[in-house]
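Blackboard transcription, Thursday session:
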Amino acid sequence: MTYLSDVAALTRKDLRVELRAQDTLPAMLLFVLSTLVVFHFALPEGTGSDAAYGLLWVAIVFTALLGLARAWVPEQEHGVLDGLVLAPCDRSAIWVGKSLATLAFLLAAQVVALPAFALFFAPLDAAALAGVLLADIGICAVGSLMAAMASAGRARELLLPLLLLPLSIPLVVGGVGAAISTEPLRYLLLLVLYDGIFAVLSWASFEYVVTE
Amino acid sequence: MTTAASSLRSLPTLAALTAGLMGLALLLAFFVAPEDADQGISQRIFYIHVPIALTAYFCFGLGAWKALLLLWKGDERYDLESYVAIHQGTIFGSLTLITGAIWAKASWGVWWTWDSNQLVLFLTLFLFYCAYFMLRFSLPEGARRARSSAVYALFGVVLIPISFLAIRLAEDFIHPTTFTRDGPQMTGTMFTAFCVSWAAVTLLAYVLYRVELAGKRLHSDLRELREALE
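(Written on the board underneath:)
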C-alpha cells in the first residue's frame, strides 16, 4: 500500500507542477494541432484515409516526444532528482509516477487532437482508439526511462528522439494496424505484449539509471 | 596490466588463423561451391553476407549479455566489454546493410525493399544500436554512464523479438527462405562453404573484439599511470 501511495504522491507532484507552471501541456496541444494542419498540406489530394492514419501516428509519437523531453527538466534544473533518489521510497515508484503524469498529459492532448483528426481527416473507430490508448501506455513507460537516461547527458533534447524512435516502431505498427486493419485484434495484442514486456523491463531497470 | 599483456600475446596467432580461414572461405565460396541455378554468380555473396549478418546479431547479443553481467555483478570491466561488442556489432551491421543492398540490386533489381522482414528488422536494430553511441558519448564518464548504457543495450535484445512480431504482422513472402524447419536448403558443398565462411567471419569478429578491447584497456591503464605521475 505504501508503494501505491508513494506513486500517487509523485504523480500528484508532477500534475501540480504542471498545473502551476503550464510548461508542457499547452505546448503539446498546440504542437499536435499544428502538425495536423501541416499534414493537410503534406497529403496530396485524393491520398485516402490510410495515409492520414499513418500521419496521425507520426503526430502522436512526436507529441509524446515533446512531453517526454520536458518530463525530467524540473528535476534536473533544481536538483530534485537527488532528493527523490534519497527519499525513503522504492526508486521504481519515481518512474511509475513520472510515467503516469506523462500519460495524463498525452491523453489530455489527445482529447483535443483525436476529435480534431476525426473532423479534419477520417473517423476513428473503437479499435483505433484502443490502439491509441495502448500505444500511449507503452510510449510513456519506455519514454520516461529513456528521458531519465538522456536527462543526464549533454544534449538531452537531441538525444531522446534518437533513443526512443527505434523503440517506438512496434508501437506505430500496432497503432496503424489497429486503425486500418479489418482484424485489429492481433495488433492490439501486439501492443499489450509490448506494454507488458517493456513496462516490466523499465520498472526493473530504472534504479540503475538514476543512482550514481 | 599483466592480463592485458598476456591476452595480447595470443592475438597474432589468432589473427593469422583468421586470415587463413578467411582465405579458405573465399576460395570455397568462389571456386568450389556450385553456381546457383537460379541466381548465378550473384548468389555467391550469400557466403559473405549471411555470416556477416549472423555475426552482427551475435555481437549485439554478446554486448547485451555483458550488459546484463554488469548490472548483475557490478564489475566495471563488463562496461568496456559490452561497449566493444556493440561497436563490433555496428561495424558488421554496416557491412551487412552494404552487402545486402548489393545482393538485392543483383537479384531483385532494387537496392532496398521494405517488403522484406529481415531487412526492416535489421535496420531497426541497427538504428537502435547507433543511438547507443549517442547515449554513451553524451553522458559523463562513470558508474551511471556504464549502467545507463547497459540498460539500453539490454532493451535491444528485447526489441528484436517484438520488432520481429510487429514486422511479421505487416506480412510478406519475398525474402528467400534458405533455412526452413526441414533444415538448410543447400547442397553439401554449398553448406560446407557457408559453414567455413561463417566460422571465418566469427573468428574475425572475435579477433577485432580482442584487439579493440586490448587497445581500450591499454589506453585506460596509460591514463591511470599518467594521472598517478601528475
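Lecturer's comment: Chain A has nine helices and no strands.
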